[in-house]
Amino acid sequence: MTNQADMDHRLERGLRSLASWGEDLPRPRPWERAVAESSMPSARSESLGNSGPWYTRRVHPGVLVGVFAVVFVVVVVGGVLLPSLARSRQSSISFSNSEREERSALSAYSIAQPPPGDSAVGFDPTQTPATEELIDLLSRRVDPEAQPNTSAASPDRHVVRKATVELKTPDVRAAFLKASLIPNAAAGEFVQDSAVTGDVHVSANLTLRVAAARLPEVLNQLRELGKVTGEQVRGEDVTAQVVDVEARLRNERRIEQELLALLDQRNDAPLKDILELRAKLGEVRDGIERLDAQRANLSRLVSLATVLVLIRADAAPEPERAAPALLSKLSKSFGAAWRSGVEFLIGSTAWIVQVAIGGLIWWTIAVVAVVVVRGQRRRAAVLRGGV
Amino acid sequence: MERTDEQLLAAYAAGDQAALGLLADRHELALLGLARGILGSRTEALDAVQEAWVRVIRFAGAFKGHSSVKTWLYRIVINECANLLNARRRVWGPSVANGGSSPGDAGSAGGSTASGTPTFDEFDDIRRAVDELDGPKRVVVMLCYSAGVPHELAAEILGLPLGTLKSRLHAALTTLRRRLAQGVTP
Question: What pLDDT score was predicted for residue A237?
């Protein structure tokens, strides 16, 4: 007991000795050195970390956190968002290109089909309406009654029009038959067809040629055959080909006339020369026939629009079932509620994990910022004598 | 009539340079002792107290009087000591950070062989045992054994309830006794 008390006594004296400085105060005293240090602007600013080269300065932790956050945002924006934006911009550009092609096709169509009083429709080829609107415009601006002539193309422009219509209908066979009858009424012709029948997959494809001026009317009739899942109208300008064929044709005919005139004038020429002249005349006439055929074909293509009709089977509507019993309805409701609950639980868990892991850097920044700010505030409070 | 600490600080903030000297005359010795007890080094204690005065000079005008000036001064010194300990730990690692005292420091304060006074070896053992305490316990022990710091003031300085302070002090002393009993022969 005495030893314990003695040890406590010694410990206390030792601790008091440790926590004492002695009587010899240093010269200059710390407060004097502090005054001297504070009175020197360079020393003071140095103590604040504002002097010397930039790489030797002390940086406030908050500034570091801010810089880190800015760098992170720049990296994220530059590395993730900008490429994504660029991708979406590219897809938008490609979409615009397809729209532009569609618009040029329609523009060519409008040039080839300038109906009288077109300004009343208000059609502007520079606009970019959606496909449905384009088809609608086509339907409105061409009046079959007003232009019964199939060769409605302008003498200046020659456009070959093609359309594709995709349909879904529960009764493919009926739609196929109705579609195959359309050319008869539209001064056109039935070109090609194919049909696939079976228990599960039933489909049919038809290629029709109809009078170009009646294309909108035909499209309207086709739309009534089922649910339209896709529709496309395109136009190809063949004016250059037509002009070329006609020029060559005129030239060949001129040569034919010249050869005939030469043959009339040289009745007394040797037989060999006459035979050569006739052979040459035959070649020229062959050329004229070919060019005539080409021109007729082009004219036919311009006057008749090609329509490709794709008919697919649509799922037949399910027969109405009898109302389920109350118990089974209740159990189904419970089952659905249970599934919804489980899905919600899984979804929310996945969301939490995603936020926790995906935002790890943000959490780190936030924690560091909170720690730094709390440390600074605590220190500032102590220095102000608060707490 | 003698001015209070608060009046001296206000006078210094108002431009009376001599007031700071009077304030230092009252507290500097105790602050140096506390810093030395916490840090175990006279040199570092001088640095800590000097830096504390720098802060006092800088923030004298911002002192709002939520606590006494004495409390404020002790808090600043303890914070500076904690900063130095942290810096020491970052540079040298925890073992060196805890064992920061030097024999010269110990010898300067110990060494008396008078009856009831720790001998040189005893003082060195106590120093080592204190250095092995963790930071908060060391601060509690040194603050409570500093001259002129009753337990109530120590609790206020550390922002602890008095009971908590006493229990921490008791735990720290128990640890010291055990270590001394294990490793030291008084």
Answer: 87
Considering just the CA atoms, what is the radius of gyration of chain A in Å?
Answer: 45
- CA distance to A153, A361, B88, B96, B125, per residue, from B92 (Å): 94, 30, 6, 6, 22
3-state secondary structure of B144: helix
Which H or E element spans position A175?
helix A172-185
In chain A, DSSP finds a helix count (H) and a strand count (E) of 12, 5
CA angle (A284, A285, A290) in 5-degree steps? 100
Q: Is the Cβ–Cβ distance between A230 and A165 less than 8 Å?
A: yes
- Nearest chain B residue to A37, by CA: B54
Single out the residue of A237, A245, A238, A236 nearest to residue A290, CA to CA: A245
How far apart CA A43 and CA A51 sit, in angstroms, is 9
Q: How many CB atoms lie within 10 A of CB A385?
A: 22
Name the minimum distance, in Å, from the CA of A61 to any CA of chain B. 15
Asked if A45 contacts A51 with a C-beta cutoff of 8 angstroms, the reply is yes
d(CA A31, CA A45): 18
| Contact (CB<8Å) B116/A10 | yes
A353/chain B closest Cα distance in angstroms: 35
Query: DSSP assignment of A187-215, as one string?
Result: T-EEEEEEEE--SS--EEEEEEEEEGGGH
Tell me the C-alpha to C-alpha distance, in Å, between residue A48 and each of A37, A59, A112, B58, B102: 12, 9, 82, 11, 31
Predicted TM-score of the model (pTM): 0.42
Q: Per residue in A308-331, pLDDT tens? A: 888 888 776 555 565 667 888 888
- Residues of B numbered 13-42 whose beta carbons fall under 8 angstroms of chain A's beta carbons: which are they? 17, 20-21, 23-24, 28-30, 32-34, 36-37, 42
Q: Which amino acid is present at B5?
A: D
ipTM: 0.79
CA distance, residue B130 to nearest chain A CA (Å): 9
Q: Quick check: B12 and B23 in contact, CB under 8 A?
A: yes
Helix or strand run (H / E) with residue A236: strand A227-237
